[in-house]
Specification:
binds adenosine monophosphate, seven-stranded mixed β-sheet, binds coenzyme A, about 625 residues, 18 helices, single chain
């Protein structure tokens, strides 16, 4: 079958398509149908089925005789450690951890917050939750205590599972003090914490509240897999929206299993037993879907890599890991390749390794620039596939489905929509646009299985954020176009979300932090183009009249504040003081125009601008920072 056949077969009969895909999953009770549309425009899938994610990701492989196969390879150039965990070992470890959680009162539906670095125990914690039907919420290690506190208050977890520390090159990230700080700040109080002590830093445990990962499992009965309803939340993953309050994306259990399993062969072209590596972090959706769940559901070997593309120890790390562990499909972010390319443009490191195992490479998380794709293709001699997705969908909306058919690669395009996604380009009024016309990218409802059915505790926000603008569609927040061959092009965000090194961040959230500085009267944060990270946040500050604090001190303060409040991952280092911000006559800050000036692009003077002279002041400020050339 060709891609066109497969896509058409879904279009002709989505119900049959998704019921067929569901056959690859082990059900305790098979669902009577795929789509449940009684509450449209809210849709759910496989609601009356009963299923367990951990069973499908772990136990069933042991049962099928694959217990001795390696499930997880841990490779940490930062700690100089490597080890492997088989499916049988994983089953024992996860059942024990799940049993200990259960013994402390964690039950189906309870939330568990996970704050862990890239160690296999992070996956074990996720799977242990899935085993007993608890709903995990993993928080990325690069976020500060305040972001953790916000998530604790929203998810209201019964317990927190954390590591004593994370490790960044040359720096220990002290998780426990961050966690303690977050628990102090949050209104919601957890019953207990489980701390995985790492030898690089042993954390102080609070008697009665904090339990040691190993000690707390002593003598408990291992837990069996608890079947849950198809629409039971598998996890909540917070992602940036327009405001400082993150959105809690809910992942439904059954659709997640079915859809992820479908993608492994059809998109990533791997079979059970193959080694699959996504070099991301468990704190992001890529880590959830393609470090933890999808490879394990499929019976692949997955790699937990604790390192960076460069500097751990060099720009050959990726190639070393691929060659040593026989990776067949590799997934990373374009920014990671840009970092490698910058250090090793001629690919000297590539030549040092036998990469004959590698068949294809996938890029996502941000726009893949043609230069980077071409460089990677030249160096590696395999197809480099750009694909487009979001935390909300949990897997690719558009891709080149190599497992079905290798479509021609068009640089700058993440190729074509996957079955389940009817992607349309709409104008502001919601009318369909023609080929090569730029507009808002929307997906005709219902979204396919595994995508978000709602936001955690925020159904109205879900409707307002995604469903209201274009009735009958899901609004992606991205703008772009579709060409005459049906290839998609993702050009920009339509909201205040920026993408820094493949990390999704909210400029609105940063503005909230800046505005809290006592000398700041008004501010704006924009995303400017960066050669390495794609975008970088930049702040503009207007000070209170009468403020006599030196400007460089205010700038240093706000840089520190963003790092302290949001976290180092925000990479907020650029800011300047200006007298005024450019606005429309109705008072809206012209952030888009500021971005264009910063990036030295042509722009049309906004007809509604209040005072065009302010743009010159902004240009001067930008030039002092090395922008607006
Ligand atoms: N825990 C704590 N801090 C973290 C962190 C974590 N898990 N991840 C990143 N940080 C910190 C970094 O140490 C850095 O801090 P610094 O300001 O003290 O240097 C800051 O957050 C910014 O990190 P990062 O954006 O990773 O920049 P970098 O300069 O350290 O590295 C790249 C640049 C391109 C190598 C790196 O961004 C990278 O590997 N990107 C790939 C991202 C990716 O895979 N995204 C997943 C989407 S699929
Ligand atoms: P996240 O939810 O963190 O995965 O971020 C999703 C956003 O990242 C998308 O809405 C896009 O703006 C951007 N994005 C992800 N993948 C791509 C891609 N392949 N091309 C262009 N933008 C992308």
């Amino acid at each position: 079958m060709t891609y066109a056949d497969v896509y058409q077969s879904w279009k002709d009969d989505p119900e049959a398509f998704w019921m067929h895909a569901a056959e690859a999953i082990d059900w305790t009770q098979k669902p009577s149908k795929a789509l449940f549309d009684e509450n449209a425009p809210l849709y759910e899938w496989y609601v009356d089925g009963k299923v367990n994610t951990c069973w499908n990701a772990v136990d069933r492989h042991v049962e099928a005789g694959r217990g001795d196969q390696t499930a997880i390879i841990y490779d940490s150039p930062i700690t100089h450690t490597k080890h492997e965990i088989t499916y049988a070992e994983l089953q024992t470890r996860v059942a024990s951890l799940a049993g200990a959680l259960r013994a402390k009162g964690v039950e189906k539906g309870d939330r568990v917050l996970i704050y862990m670095p890239m160690v296999p125990e992070a996956l074990e914690a996720m799977l242990a939750c899935a085993r007993i039907g608890a709903v995990h919420s993993v928080v990325f290690g690069g976020f500060a205590a305040n972001e953790l506190a916000v998530r604790i208050d929203d998810a209201q977890p019964k317990c927190i599972i954390a590591a004593s520390c994370g490790l960044e090159p040359g720096r220990v990230v002290h998780y426990k003090p961050l966690l303690d700080g977050a628990m102090e700040q949050s209104t919601h109080k957890v019953d207990f914490c489980v701390i995985f002590q790492r030898e690089q830093e042993v954390a102080k445990l609070e008697e009665g509240r904090d339990f040691d990962w190993h000690g707390f499992q002593y003598g408990v009965d291992p837990a069996e897999c608890v079947p849950v309803e198809g629409n039971h939340p598998a996890y909540i993953l917070y992602t940036s929206g327009t405001t400082g309050a993150p959105k809690g994306v809910v992942r439904p259990t059954a659709g997640h299993l079915v859809a992820l399993n479908w993608t492994m062969k059809n998109i990533y072209n791997v079979d059970p037993g193959d080694v699959f590596w996504a070099a991301s972090d468990v704190g992001w959706v890529v880590g959830h879907s393609y470090i933890c769940y999808a490879p394990l559901i499929t019976g692949n070997t997955t790699i937990v890599f604790e390192g960076k593309p460069v500097g751990t120890p060099d720009a050959g790390t990726f190639w070393r890991v691929i060659s040593e562990h026989k990776v067949k499909s590799f997934f990373t972010a374009p920014t990671a390749f840009r970092a490698v390319k910058r250090e090793d443009p001629k690919g000297e490191f590539v030549k040092k390794y036998d990469l004959s195992c590698l068949e294809q490479v996938y890029l996502a998380g941000e726009r893949a620039d043609p230069d980077t794709i071409e460089w990677a293709q030249d160096q590696l001699g395999v197809p480099v596939i750009d694909h487009w997705w979001q935390t909300e969908t949990g897997y690719a909306i558009a891709a080149n489905p190599l497992g079905i058919e290798a479509l021609p690669i068009k640089l700058g395009s993440p190729a074509v929509p996957m079955p389940g996604f009817d992607v349309q380009i709409l104008d502001e009024a919601g009318h369909k646009m023609g080929p090569n016309e730029l507009g808002a990218i929307a997906i005709k409802l219902p979204l396919p299985p595994g995508t978000l059915p709602t936001l955690w505790n925020a159904e109205e926000r879900f409707k307002k954020s995604y469903l209201q603008q274009f009735p009958g569609y899901y609004e992606t927040g991205d703008a772009g176009m579709i060409d005459e061959d049906g290839y998609l092009y993702i050009m920009a965000r339509t909201d205040d979300v920026i993408n820094v090194a493949g990390h999704r961040l909210s400029t609105g959230a940063m503005e909230e932090v800046l505005a809290a500085h006592p000398d700041v009267a008004e501010c704006a944060v924009i995303g400017v183009t960066d050669q390495l990270k794609g975008q970088l946040p930049m702040g503009f500050l207007c000070l209170n009249s009468g403020s006599d604090k030196p400007h460089d001190e205010v700038v240093a303060d706000v840089v520190k504040m963003v790092r302290g409040k949001i976290g180092p991952v925000a990479a907020f280092k650029l800011a300047c003081v200006v007298d005024r911000l450019p606005k429309t006559r109705s008072g809206k800050i012209l952030r888009g125009t500021m971005v264009k000036i910063a990036d030295s692009e042509d722009f049309k003077m906004p007809a509604t601008i209040d005072d065009p002279a302010i743009l010159d002041e902004i240009r001067v400020a930008l030039q002092k920072m090395g922008y607006a050339k």
